[in-house]
Design a protein that fits this description.
- The chain is built from 15 helices and 34 strands.
- It is an alpha+beta fold and about 750 residues long.
Amino acid sequence: MGRKKKVEKRRGRKGTQKVGRSRFSRDTKPKKDRSVSRVRGLVLQYFRNSKGEASDYQQVAEGVGAEGDLAVEMVREAMVQLAQERVLVADSLPDRYRYVAPRQKMEGILRRKAGRGHNMFYPDDGGEPIRVAERNTGHAMDGDKVVMNRLATRRGQEPEGEIVEILERADTNFVGVISILNDVAFLITESNKLANDIFIPRDKLNGAQDGDKVVVKVLEWPERAKNPVGEVQAVIGKPGDNDTEMHAILAEYGLPFKYPEEVTLAGEKLDANKAFSDIFPRKDFRKPLTITIDPESAKDFDDALSLEKVGEGRWEVGVHIADVTAYVLPNDEIDREAAKRASSVYLVDRTVPMLPERLCNDLCSLKPGVDRPAYSVIFQLDDEAKVLDYEITRTIIHSDKRLTYEEAQAMIDGAEQPETAAIQTLNNLAKKLRADRMKAGAIAFERSELAFRIDDQGKPLEIYVKHPIPANHLIEEFMLLANRTVAKHIGTLYGEGKDGPTFVYRVHDTPDAEKLADLAEFVGRLGYKIKPTGTPEQIARSLNDLLKKVQDKPEAELVETLTIRTMAKAIYQTENIGHYGLAFPYYTHFTSPIRRHPDMMVHRLLTHYMNGGKSLKRADIEEICKYDSEQERKATEAERTSIKYKQVEFMQNHLGEVFDGVISGVKEFGVFVELIANGVEGLVPIRDLDDDYYELDEKTYSLVGYNTKRRFSLGDKLTIRVARADLDKRQLDFELLS
């Protein structure tokens, strides 16, 4: 680099400005970490002087006096980095950028992560999140809508901000244990969303005693006070009690842990014959063989299948769904509670229902031996599972048999039962439906799950890994067929290629390009290849090819986990963008109204439009979709937390024991190890890796020793000893042996 001289403007190529005469020498090779920072400054100065004109990297390189391939490449890198930070924006012409003066004040949402300095501000305009140090949070709580002021940042550092105004407080509750000492009460919380305990005035304890686990609502956080001030909303119970801990998990995610007595009573008062009145015309489907297939522990049966041969090589398959909305009317007492909950929640030892028990387990449950109202999609299929025709209609059905997945699987495998022929026919059709999906570009994920055997007190006696079986796929394929048929029926109501009326779609966006590139790099080191760019169909085929090649290999679960991480999260919305993972251009949720509020909405919208109703206001339905998507996320997190709690509880009886495991996650604070014997996951903290200074390499999912270059990478096998099992923090720590 030559000496920096007084800045002057000179005409170079058209639209090019010279910023001084600083040059990158062809002969000298300065250390890149020092020179990149300087190049960034020169590039930034160039664009600040450009008065909003767009330039490509060659123009910028000439403007800052860059000479030689290395220097020009450094200019390009600086521009890419500034574009990622939204300091530069892409122009309409390829590879050209313009300068955008960063706003100093922005509105958005603060997300808190106490303890690791990871508080982040998320701008309303969708820009990159900005870190906010704890000292600069201005007492803003997690989820608050705030105004953030960008702080001056030194070169080479990530941008930081300071919260200067709180526009709207989030409805923030915390779970913890009450500590009363010398007549002063505090909530001691383990939440990673708050670094401070919460002061509870005596008149706000509402009956809570020292040592109780409670739910506290933050009332205020005075400007000069170290601690926020709160009020006890509910006493959950004594720490360590199973019901207390499960209810605490629900409360932690803002999910209700008690069902209102008045809503339960409303369910008890429902007229069982209400759904069979003339208000709901029904076709009689009690004649065909009808079965339900569910887990052994299931109490609510919200879907059933019927089968009847209606011609040579022609089958009539009915997908029958519990007709919840024939009992639950819009905005009645039960409906308001269902809309608030948005879904049932499945913890390890219990189901927290969306609907009152009488609806879940009786009136809407498609139990065998009784007539039940259903909302059905009746398919005419040929032997190759091609849909020849379909009808969507309300029905009355009569289930002949309730099967568990294991019983259905036995029939698939050849066990002689009266229903065996029907089950095998349905299975053959389901296999062909699945093959067609895969051919169309669906991603072939085969996720196993942890299962628990627990006693009457909720204590885990055994943990094991449960793998999907063909009987699971049988039900899955027909539910998928019904869901996509309903979605397409409404989505094309005004004709192919035209937007249909306002509807609830279950959508899944294409994978993140950067994550795909990282996945390609990682699996490349394992000897596999994927195509990280191209059309969605090409990428899907490449991912499926990868998943097929790793099947039954030691790295199979690792590769599948990383592939899932590249995927967007499926959500509910009114704009249909299709479902990438399933390769469906139209998809919704129609098949589980007992446990999902969006399915209830779909049933009502379907009825409205099939009766000739006009398109409803999109904004109203979209708001409900966003809420239901968020509640689904909370329910999933609560389920995972209950699994983690039961894992730690189970491993308390195995302290000091040695297990083999596989690294399942890598973070800056340590490596997660999944035990091969039972799928339990724990952490080897980085503080215990004391033979070197380890740093996170995000690209390779590794912790790398600074001196030794020793690597701890995803998929590595380790031998560990169970060191600590902290139920209060739900943390399981392992000690590395080899």
